[in-house]
Specification:
Oligomer: single chain
Largest sheet: 5 strands, antiparallel
CATH superfamily: YVTN repeat-like/Quinoprotein amine dehydrogenase
Strand content: over 45%
Shape: globular
Radius of gyration: 22 Å
Helix content: under 10%
Number of domains: 1
Number of strands: 33
Number of helices: 0
């Protein structure tokens, strides 16, 4: 079965009172799923310089017996520009994280291959491969049985830093960082562990203003416990903290994502256990890893946060899943907060089945874009890759009506795309209609 793209909702009518640059006056909203007859999920997204989106995840829709790295490019209006699968040497592979290249000439994707090695791929704006590399677990000078990448970021000193976890030959699960050059050449690889007998996992890393790297993850033993640690530019550990060491109990279980928190500190998003189950949790820490505040969010059922980003307003946008609210067993949700962690608004998305967000970013039009997976908008039991684009208030669909002026007759004077270019409308491709009375109508002709 060929991959499919399904437009679910669209922002319909918006009034503006000037025909000068009308597209710059609002953020557009839409939902889309992309997938086939297998398992399709997105883990990471970047906005491109031309306001389109590039997404990385994994899919076995092409071959139900083999997962492949999946890279999808969408237009600013949610149209699928390209949908490509990658599998080095025809091996099982998974995409995890994407970042714009240091030279602004493409995108760097990191993932995993054969469940034991790390796969790096550089592509241009159209998804064409510029180069690829495989970092073998037994070729790094470390004693490893396997390793897995979770996140890649650009480094201020050039090149990129990959973080994840690994299985050592002594049976211990530890965290791993791999520093590479702009061309993907290995600079160094180092393993980290808290010294206990428990399993350590690193899920995300961010570079602080002083150049050091802050990692977040978990320690998994008798119970699961948040962990964060900082390293210098050479990968040497500066300090490491476990949540139980910080005086707030053992109830914050997993740190999934981190963002700069202001004043040199950080904001961590994840899952915290309360008496009524698991809840979303945010923890603000100082530059030396001490807890400044922590807050729980959610309801009577299990909730989780998997991603957090800083907003243009100086607050935070977090995303994940909720079983407490919404219309399904597990709905995708966004949580918009001020700089103190107080809630500005919460939004829920999805349907009757499981819908999850794994990554969220604020967009250049001041809205938000989020990716994950959805079982609510698919015709089979397998999830599809899920993308949500909202305005600055988390809204996808808004419908307003405005009366015509003058003699009451409204005349269409132009149709344009989201870049302001004149177009002839096509089926399933969103476009904008401009009328003589100042109405701007964003619409789509569905087959």
């Amino acid at each position: 079965m060929n991959p499919k793209a399904k437009s679910i909702k669209l922002l319909c009518l918006i009034a503006v009172f000037s025909l000068l640059s009308p597209i710059d006056l609002y953020a557009q909203g839409w939902e889309i799923t992309v997938g086939g007859n297998g398992y399709d999920v997105a883990y990471s997204i970047e906005e491109t310089s031309d306001s389109d989106f590039i997404i990385v995840g994994e899919s076995n829709s092409t071959n139900n017996d083999k997962y492949m790295v999946n890279i999808v490019k969408l237009s600013s209006g949610g149209e699928v520009i390209s949908n490509r699968k990658y599998s080095p040497y025809d091996e099982l592979s998974h995409g995890r994280s994407i970042v714009e290249s240091n030279n602004d000439d493409g995108y760097i994707i990191v993932g995993n291959v054969s469940n034991k090695d790390i796969y790096l791929l550089k592509v241009d704006d159209y998804g064409d491969t510029l180069f690829s590399k495989i970092y073998r677990h037994d070729e790094l000078g470390l004693t490893l049985n396997s390793m897995s990448a979770e996140c890649i970021i650009r480094s201020s000193q050039g090149g990129y830093l990959i973080t994840g976890f690994c299985s050592q030959t002594n049976g211990q699960i530890a965290m791993i960082d791999i520093k590479i050059s702009d061309d993907g050449d290995l600079v160094w690889a180092k393993v980290f562990h808290d010294g206990s007998s428990e399993r350590n996992y690193s899920y995300e890393v961010i570079q602080s203003p002083d150049g050091s790297y802050l990692h977040v993850g978990e320690v998994n033993g008798a119970f699961t416990e948040m962990l964060w640690f900082k390293t210098n530019l050479d990968g040497d550990t500066l300090w490491m903290k476990r949540i139980a060491d910080l005086g707030i109990g053992n109830y914050a279980t997993t740190a999934h994502s981190v963002a700069l928190g202001g004043d040199g500190g950080f904001i961590i998003a994840g899952i915290g256990e309360q008496s009524n189950g698991f809840q979303s949790v945010l923890i603000k820490i100082s530059s030396d890893g001490e807890v400044i505040w922590y807050k729980y969010y959610g309801g009577s059922e299990d909730d989780a946060l998997y991603s957090i980003d800083v907003t243009l307003a100086g607050g935070f946008i977090a995303a994940g899943r909720t079983n407490s609210f919404g219309s399904g067993s597990s709905d995708a949700y966004l949580l918009n907060l001020d700089s103190s962690g107080d809630t500005n608004w919460v939004r829920y998305y999805g349907g009757a089945h499981e819908d999850i967000i794994y990554d969220i970013k604020q967009t250049s039009d001041k809205g938000f874009v989020a990716v994950g997976s959805s079982r609510s908008h698919t015709s089979d039991q397998n999830p599809d890759l899920y993308v949500i684009k909202t305005d600055a208030f988390g809204t996808i669909t808004t419908i307003e009506e405005y009366p015509a002026t003058g003699n009451g007759e409204r005349t269409l004077i132009q149709t344009i795309d989201f870049h302001g270019r004149a177009v002839n409308p096509k089926k399933n491709v969103p476009y904008v209609e401009i009328y003589n009375d100042g109405l701007v109508k964003k619409t789509v002709i569905l087959e």
